[in-house]
Amino acid sequence: MAGLKRIAPVTSVSEPGKAELGLIQRRVHMMTDSELLRFGLIAKFECSELQREAQLPSEILMAELEELRAEWKRRFPEMPLRDSF
Fold it and tell me: How far apart are alpha carbons 61 and 6 in whole angstroms?
């Protein structure tokens, strides 16, 4: 998606390291509920589009989606993830 800011900076490394994961976790934790939902939906859409085009999502994108989902589950443990992103 054009104009979308990634949570973690895009690096030449395909796998996120501890520094990138820490940055993702800190930024996700600081998001408001609406930002979390918006970024989660966008990350899910991007992963789906890449898979539809027979491409694999990057490790960074997958790490972002996993962290977004983990934070959503932490904030809303009673809401099934399928009802969000």
Answer: 8
Q: Which two tokens stand for residue 9?
A: 């900076």
Task: Kindly report, residue by residue over 34-84, the tens digit of the pLDDT.
Answer: 999 999 999 999 998 988 888 888 888 999 999 999 999 999 998 887 777
Contact by Cβ (8 Å): 57, 50: yes
Strand residue runs (E) in the chain: none
**pLDDT of res. 73:** 93
Task: Name every residue whose Cβ is closer than 8 Å to that of residue 40 and which is 6 or more positions away in sequence.
Answer: 65, 68, 69, 72, 84, 85
Q: Which of 70, 59, 63 is nearest to 36 (CA)?
A: 70
Neighbours of 47 (CB within 10 A): 17
For the segment 8-34, the average pLDDT, to the nearest whole number, is 79
